[in-house]
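Deliverable D4.2, example record:
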Amino acid sequence: MTAMNFYMRDGTVMFLARACNESIPDFMSEFLPRFTNWRAANWKHIALGRSLSAQFKDPNGAPMDLDVAGNAIAQKLRAMAPAARRQECSNLLQDFPSAEGGSMRR
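Output generated by the structure prediction step:
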């Protein structure tokens, strides 16, 4: 994963987690510790991606806006059928393993 991917993942994943929490009780209580561990393990990549992000512009020449991207991703998740949404939320948890779950990824 490139530094930009780490930065973008860091800036958008909470939008997905909030959308998951709307339909899966206590999703955030399981997700937040995993995300916190992932951020701690990958802070250097995230910081480098943040510094590189100034080079990237949208088609109108505006700086990249992670809030816009995160909201769009969350809306797409909310529009899914309930079973598909649960599967995507389960996949999100797998992307951020628990501290006992082994190596960090994504």
